[in-house]
Amino acid sequence: MGGWKVEARLLRLTASRRCDLAECRGHCCGGGVWIDVGEAARIVEAAGQIKPHLPVPLRDEELWFDGVVEADADFPTGYAMGTRVQPSPDHPMGSACVFLRPDFRCALQVAGNADGEGAWKYKPYYCALHPITRSGPEISLDAENEIYIEGGCCHRPGPEQIPMYLFFERELRLAMGDDDYKNLQALARDDRSSTLQK
Q1: What is the pLDDT of residues 89-107, one digit of tens each?
Q2: What's the gap between Cα 61 and its chain centre?
Q3: Prediction pTM value
Q4: Residue 84: partners with Cβ closer than 8 Å, 6 or more residues away
Q5: Among 4, 23, 47, 159, which residue carries the largest CB count within 10 Å?
Q6: Angle between the N-to-C axes of helices 178-197 and 169-176, in degrees from 0 to 180, rounded to the nearest 10
Q7: What phi and psi, each to the nearest 5 degrees, are found at residue 4?
Q8: What are the backbone angles phi and psi of residue 81, rounded to the nearest 5°?
Q9: Angstrom distance (rounded) from CA 176 to CA 198
Q10: pLDDT tens digit string along 142-163?
């Protein structure tokens, strides 16, 4: 399956439903996000498409990134930086990523949808994956970090039992690619079938 190592928790049935912004207010965006320097450059190049979706005081692209570049092998270029964080009294953490709008929607995601090219066109890779995390070939559900525990999780207790790999299909497709995700589905179905027959 493409050499991926998928955490077993993502194959389990869990009674879940998706969170919505009325509940979490973009909690996961409170501390900003690490972004590949190549992604940051592409966002700046697309500033004209993104700015209309931000409040006027945040439309200066000089304010968008912290400028502190760090080496990190998990990013395509090997280097990452953070998005800036601004005070946000209405946010659960009191601050938020510069791209989080007052309506708690991501300006990068809104801009991608407005362009007709989808939510992930400008959104940073690891931000789009949340709460799925990827380190090399290892893919897991990030249910242990502080943001997740305090309310920044993307699923809540719900009435329907659903395998986590289906619940987080769009994130896993982004992480693994469509073909490897389909292989994961097939393997998970086969495993569940053999377990039921025992």
Answers
A1: 888 888 899 999 999 899 9
A2: 22
A3: 0.83
A4: 32, 63, 64, 65, 66, 97, 98
A5: 4
A6: 120
A7: -75, 145
A8: -145, 170
A9: 30
A10: 766 666 656 666 777 788 888 8
d(CA 158, CA 15): 5
Residue in this structure with the two tokens 């077993």, named with its chain if needed = 8
- Burial of 64 from C-beta contacts in 10 A (0-12 / 13-18 / 19+): buried
Q: Tokens representing 117?
A: 């090219």
Structure-token match 């570049």, residue found: 69
What's the chain look like in SS3?
CCCCEECHHHHCEEEEEECCHHHHCCHHHCCCCEEEHHHHHHHHHCHHHHHHHCCHHHCCHHHCECCCCEECCCCCCCEEEEECEEECCCCCCCEEECCECCCCCEHHHHHHHHCCCCCCCCCCHHHHHCCEEEECCEEEECCCCHHHHCCCCCEEEEEEEEEHHHHCHHHHHHHHCHHHHHHHHHHHHHHHHHHHHC
